[in-house]
Amino acid sequence: MNRRQKRLVIGVFFGAMATIVLIFGGFYIRKSVRENRTAKTVSQTAIKENKREVPAPTKDPHAGMVKSSMTGEWIKKSVADNRYFAVMINNIGYAFRHQMGTSKADIMYEALAEGGITRMMALYQDISNVKRIGSVRSARHYYVQFAREWDAVFCHFGHTKYAVSKMKKLKTENLSGLSGIGPVVYARTNTLAAPHNVFTSGKKILKGAKKLGYSTNAKGRDAAEHFSFYGSDTDLPGGKKGKRITIPFSNYSICRMKYDKKKKIYFKYEYGSKHMDTYYKKQLCFKNVILQFVKESNIDHNGYQTMELGDVTGKGYYFTNGKCIPITWERSESANTMVYLDADRHVLKINPGKTYIAVYPGNRKKLIAVK
Length: 371
Prior knowledge:
This protein has seven helices and 28 strands. It is α+β, with helices and mostly antiparallel strands and 371 residues long. It is globular, with a radius of gyration of 36 Å.
């Protein structure tokens, strides 16, 4: 082999070696890249898994809120500080068909007035946004007493002498349609017949209260306890069936409550039809129904009613979620205390939601039908 051939062989040999080095070097580099990528992916996955192990704190849906003393539901702190307002609602058959703002009430009282008709008293914790309320009717002295239990500003258009006497005795802060504040708070509509055509609004009521210097803040005031609340929706332990309640205040006025199992509330009916709020187009409905039996009688030859609501005790029933239990109640007008009690004489716990209270003659309780 001559020198030239030797150089050629040596060149080929080193070229082959270089190629081999490049091939294996490239393989090693690609392998290293893949390993680095795999390591990076594993590292990122580990980081994600570690993040999953420490979930972000859940935001409290009730932050800055408190439970309402009227309904037990979560409300804004600013609303909880509101003073209550009680409005007398006309419930004669003609006015019944045109009621407004009643579905916005947190608590609704109903009791006999005279002639077999009933009056209602709507209690509001936040009256400011109620755009139409009525028709507003005259006061009765036992409604003055109910309003005092809640330390509410009492709103009425008209009165009996007994109501005026009771307001003076209890020093009731009231907005009377027959006083100088009347035109500020109330107005008649020409679409309905008098005296069933007086209406108001939350803004007008607050304006009237401000003009008369009434406090609209509940802090430091002395509303009676009445009841406490379950922390969440609770079925009554034991109890009897209570899905349909018929409360015959008279042959003229018969209240019926029908339990809706799906919605878990009682819908109100009267005069053979749904009890509607015609402004907000809602049927009146309640989570809780209380029957409060009282000793009731005529106070004079005009048929005006009176009730024993001084320092007195009585019986009743509490309905919720389709069941009912017997209860008692204790009231002291001198101390302004009023409380409902269960069978163990503990303060009655009721479910969060709106409450209807029928104040009914105890000597006629056998007429009430419950199914």
